[in-house]
Design brief:
Elements (H helix, E strand, L loop, with lengths): L1 E5 L5 E5 L7 H4 L13 E2 L1 H7 L1 E7 L2 E7 L7 E7 L2 E5 L7 H9 L3 E5 L9 H8 L3 E4 L13 E4 L3 E5 L2 E5 L8 E5 L5 E3 L5 E2 L6 E2 L12 H11 L6 E3 L6 E2 L3 H20 L1
């Protein structure tokens, strides 16, 4: 019996004698099955034999990302939380070296994930560190490996304590969540619910990033309005280097306005 992992999105499935016929997360229109290879599978042991995790600073936080890049290629973030850390978003690979380094930095008190594309091996992480996983209930159908560690939350906000708040932004997924950190000037950890783009003077919004399907303007304006009550100077995206260190709230506001303007000019 193996817990097979989709090579395209990094999601782990329950133990079985053979891989599933397909990965529902990748056959969904927001993701894809690679045309060149089709559906492919691996295991955690196989992945650990060819990959490792890099752990390094990302702005004021610490990032964890797999090298060489695997699946979607996101990196997770360690966010100070009480005497330990909260893991924001997740990566598939968890090996002994990574676990030891996380423990050295205080361990994990909780995991929170923005949306299903980053669920990856969340249950492996939760069991290794004996901590809960906070997911929005609107995306419960996308959990491929159910586990008692998963705590579904509902509504628009979840106060975690320690100055950390989960915010439902929707957009990319109905339960698309962001994490607000109140410490200092404030930071918004957005995954790709709000996308950090090459032009650091703006951010992006999409329903499907790989397939280039946009969001309705109403959804973008609602997302921007959701984060408006929160103070944040910095914004953290989902990949290495995707950090806007200052004026992030103004940039989100300006980008939502630009989105509306662009749709008006294109659609007339």
């Amino acid at each position: 019996m193996e817990r097979f992992i989709c090579k395209a999105c990094g999601t782990q499935f329950p133990a079985a004698d053979s891989p599933p016929p397909s990965c529902p997360i990748c056959t969904d229109w927001r993701q894809y099955v690679p045309a060149a290879t089709g559906q492919q599978w691996t295991t955690l042991a196989e992945l650990a034999s060819t990959h490792a995790n890099a752990i390094r600073e990302q702005g004021e936080l610490v990032g964890i990302g797999t090298t060489p890049s695997f699946a979607i290629g996101q990196r997770a973030l360690l966010v100070p939380f009480g005497a330990g850390n909260l893991l924001w978003d997740c990566v598939t690979l968890l090996d002994d070296a990574t676990a030891a380094e996380v423990e050295r930095r205080g361990g994990l008190a909780a995991i929170a994930i923005s949306h299903p594309h980053y669920y990856s091996c969340m249950v492996e992480w939760a069991r290794r560190f004996d901590c809960p996983i906070h997911l929005h209930a609107a995306d419960a159908e996308w959990v491929m490996r159910p586990d008692p560690a998963i705590a579904f939350w509902e509504g628009e906000r979840l106060e975690l304590g320690g100055g950390l708040t989960l915010i439902r932004g929707g957009g990319h997924f109905p339960g698309g969540a962001m994490l607000h950190r109140a410490e200092g000037a404030g930071a918004l950890l957005a995954g790709d619910i709000i996308q950090v783009i090459p032009d650091r003077g703006h951010v992006g919004f999409m329903w499907s990033y790989p397939n280039l399907v946009p969001l309705p303007d109403a959804a973008v304006q609602a997302l921007a309005a959701t984060v408006e009550p929160f103070a944040f100077e910095a914004l953290y995206g989902a990949w290495w280097g995707t950090v806007i260190p200052s004026r992030a709230k103004e940039i989100v506001r300006r980008s939502a306005a630009r989105y509306s303007q662009a749709l008006r000019e294109v659609l007339g």
